[in-house]
Amino acid sequence: MRLRRRSPLLLVATLAVAGCAPPAPAPLSEDEHAELMNRAHEELARGKADGVGCSGIVPPDRGPFGKQIALTFDDGPLDVARTRKVMDVVEAHGTRATFFINGRHFPQRNGELSPTRVALLQEMLARGHQVANHTQNHANATKLSLEAFEREVKETESIVREATATRPYYFRYPGGAATCDTNRRVTALGYAVTGWHIDSADWCFGVDSTETEDYCSPNTFRHVGEAYRHDFAGWILYQLKKLGASGKPLLDGGILLMHDSQAFTVRKLDSVLTRLEQEGFRFVMLSDRRVFPKLNAALPSSLWHDGGVADAAPRDATPRDAGPREAGTLSDGTSTDRLHPVGPFSTRCAGCDLATHDCRAYKGTYTCTARSASCSYTDGYLFKQCDCTGWAFCLPGNVWGRCGQAPAGIFSCR
Fold it and tell me: Where are the beta strands (DSSP E) in 252-388?
């Protein structure tokens, strides 16, 4: 699969070097990010939005959420293996996550995006996760001109469009730093500004923790109580269970912020999700309108996953030789006969016999192609010898399928 040459928008960074465009803004330093996150916690603690749509932190849906949590991850994909491991763990707990990506993590050569990073985005969508926008360079939006801020949003959006033929609809500010003007601009671009209810503080725990001991320093994040400075999961649960004046939990769920860029998060994720489940919490999609109706009110109905996950089968949920899903109907009445999941939404492949063929998708064009029994991809990507009687997942052929990674690193049908 050969990616087309980049659009002018995506060549901004290259042109900047040549003096044809402003230079890319500097990413937040660790100290700047920490200070913004401390301020964000203080804004959340005040418990109400500013009332004029200027916040990049406070979500429009305020809870309580009936022990329902949406998992979101920022700042990736810094490390492909980490992000893929996060997907594995999240799926093992029967749900999907939303990944707020930075476009700067998608290097290009000769005007083309890295095939490995493109493949990761495509895999994300194929497995039912959602891709969202976290700006190109992870800069402080309050220090940018509106034109520079819009470039930050559009550059990452263009990468997603280029790689997946879809666009992101959720947007999160680095550090939650927003202004009234930037909010007006990003919502005019069709985004829902997505803050968070619970900051896991993995960005703090990830600095000083060891393999055997959690630790978040007060010099980094001053709001973690002493009782939780050595207890990552405990800090998350404390926020979830914190009582209001009524004697009931204020949140009891909501949007949980984590970072797939953090090795600490990858190491701790399974145990944290297990503990949350043991405490009676369950996981939902960010696009679940029952839980987050205000956040999703202005977004296309094709995004909504009320009461379920996206159109990707949970791991090991189907027999090894399972073919395409049976015919049925979607919530809008559309027949699912001859539908093939190529992302978080289903796309019609009329006339394609999915018993023997696959629906290949690339840049919005879908073709019906005879299924390959096996395939391999060698350009640094992890899929090797997918020998599938059901769907295959082969790149560069870009055939989505039901292949899973065995412990030894060899991929086989699941």
Answer: 253-259, 282-284, 339-341, 346-348, 357-362, 365-370
End-to-end CA distance of the chain: 24
Reported as half-sphere exposure (CB side, CA atoms, 13 A), residue 239 has a value of 26
Q: Would the pLDDT of 327 be above 80?
A: no
Q: In this structure, how many other beta carbons lie within 10 angstroms of the beta carbon of residue 297?
A: 11
Decide if 120 contacts 77 (C-beta within 8 A): yes
Cis before 77 (ω within 30): yes
pLDDT at 376 over 80: no
Give the least confident one: 175-179, 323-327, 352-356: 323-327
Among positive and negative, which fits the CA dihedral 165, 170, 175, 177?
positive
Please report how many Cα atoms fall inside a 13 Å half-sphere around the Cα of residue 404, on the Cβ side.
19
Check pLDDT > 60 for residue 9. no
CA 150 to chain centre: 20
CA-closest candidate to residue 113, choices 179, 153, 161 = 161
Cis peptide before 396 (omega within 30 of 0): yes
Angle at 258 between CA 253 and CA 281, to 5 degrees: 25
As a whole number, mean pLDDT of residues 44-61 equals 79
> What's the pLDDT score for residue 352?
62
The DSSP letter of residue 384 is: B
C-alpha of 336 from chain center: 25
Query: Kindly report the CA angle at 224 between 219 and 132, in degrees rounded to 5?
Result: 95
pLDDT of residue 353: 62
* DSSP conformational letter for 372: P
Q: Residue 40's closest CA among 183, 171, 153, 200?
A: 200
Q: Does residue 178 contact residue 217 with C-beta atoms inside 8 Å?
A: no
SS3 112: strand
Nearest CA to 269 out of 89, 70, 61, 13 is that of 89
Does residue 385 carry a pLDDT above 80? Answer: no
pTM summary value = 0.73
Instruction: Give residue 313's pLDDT.
Output: 30
Q: Grade residue 177 by pLDDT with cuts at 50, 70 and 90.
A: very high
